[in-house]
Amino acid sequence: MAGGTHHAHAAHGEGFCVFNDTAVAARVLQAEGLLQRVAVIDLDVHQGNGTASICADDEAIFTFSMHGARNFPVRKASSDLDIELPDASGDAPYLQQLAVALERVFTLARPELVIYLAGADPYHDDRLGRLALSFAGLAARDEMVLAACRQRAVPVAISMAGGYARDIDDTVSIHCRTVLTARQIFNPLLG
Ligand SMILES: [Zn+2]
């Protein structure tokens, strides 16, 4: 796990991001003929504006971003599906909207691969995020995304994206939980 540098555009970097690893990975897989249809599920608290702009004219790459309406970037790009949440949105409204959105993503994108940006920054004590998810809410979020992929037999690549909790241990715990959840859902025999 690393990356999720979703603010990088085709011709310039932005917001801690130099190269857009998601867009590059999707395009390389397409160029190598390994697959065509990719869905990007970007749940970092900041909009995946670079990914959206790079993939804007690419019908085969579906970009979905769910983020804080008042979080960076001030001027948002247009993803194929954007959900903007008001400040201090907590677990319940977040998970409710995510469940509905995931159905739409899989129906519209029919992906052969999901690239999931599992940002830790929707956390309530994040310094750069304006949402208010708990540890349990973030774990439920991961579970919802990964189970949706598993149920449909769609492979998923996970990147960390952002995380700036006041206590860095919180950010680490959130990312570790994502890994453990993936292991549990994709290889339940390992427990
Ligand atoms: Zn972020």
From TrEMBL:
SUPFAM superfamilies: Arginase/deacetylase (SSF52768). The keyword Nucleotidyltransferase does not apply. Pfam families: Hist_deacetyl. Keywords: Hydrolase. InterPro entries: HDAC_classIV, HDACs, His_deacetylse_dom, His_deacetylse_dom_sf, Ureohydrolase_dom_sf. Residues 2-168 form the Histone deacetylase domain. Belongs to the histone deacetylase family. This is Histone deacetylase.
